[in-house]
């Protein structure tokens, strides 16, 4: 398979996997947890717990893909997307739902670093455009998944949404296992555990000392704090101002739709003018739109703000992944992408938890203002650090 066909395959599988994942994740998950009796703090925990899997496993997963090759990690990851959705209809307990979400998080924890590293290897000279296109394809899952999931919950109930998500995931499994990627061969085969552990530790050490990788990944974390807060509490806020589940799903879809079309364009822009100014600009856009959301109940205006936040996300993401790849050594590219994913997931997991606590003691407006402020602080810290690097 040529590099171009491998790229098309990884993008197509990404679309199917993330449609499946996002059908479960938003707005269905928060509504399902609430239907089981969860309050704001517990909803924040349930929404964020799958991201905690990424915090624990993305860096080791990326490092293992440097050692054993990308394909084996991608094969495991795609299975983790396809099978868990079929278990959700049997959940009646919040503890069981929390455990299932943690297990479902294996999907992105294992698949995402290897997929990003694969794309970065396929297109070393045009990484911004290639990574922007790939992340746009995965974003299309966030475009279609919430809309389909919200509509199915509204018209047919939770089981229909979960089973349909499983069908999309299984389609990704069949496609990926029936074709073959053109990727670099594994560096290590038939080596003992001690040799593998030493090689992983070497990758961890190199990446953890890379200031550019760490600060760039931190900007993604700040963006994902806001994203996680929206994922958990925009459905509940929407219902509180008179929207239905389908309307809330459309808000997420508009956000993803804007990000989907913006990422390839902004990736090409970052190849030409540089990554750093776009990352700062994107964080400022995310903060400005995010802080306005809890002051609005007019549905068309909420659509505009969701679209604006999606554009800000696209500006940050299309530049940050490419900058991490540019700043990583070739032999630790997977570890670099895993480090970015780990730090990003720390932010994503913190968002629902932080928002849940702030909303419980303050209000939607106060909580969103605090989180918007964190994004502005991250933008300032990134700009200062990169100028000194």
From TrEMBL:
Xref: Pfam families: MFS_1
An annotated Gene Ontology molecular function: transmembrane transporter activity
Alphabetized UniProt keyword annotations: Membrane, Transmembrane, Transmembrane helix
Record flagged with keyword Membrane: yes
Keyword Transit peptide in annotation: no
Cross-referenced InterPro entries: MFS, MFS_dom, MFS_trans_sf
Start and end residues of each Major facilitator superfamily (MFS) profile domain: 6-389
Spans traversing the lipid bilayer: 7-23, 43-60, 72-91, 103-123, 130-154, 160-179, 278-311, 353-384
PANTHER family per record: C-METHYLTRANSFERASE, MAJOR FACILITATOR SUPERFAMILY TRANSPORTER
Protein name in UniProt: Putative Multidrug resistance protein MdtG
Higher taxonomy: Bacteria, Pseudomonadati, Nitrospirota, Nitrospiria, Nitrospirales
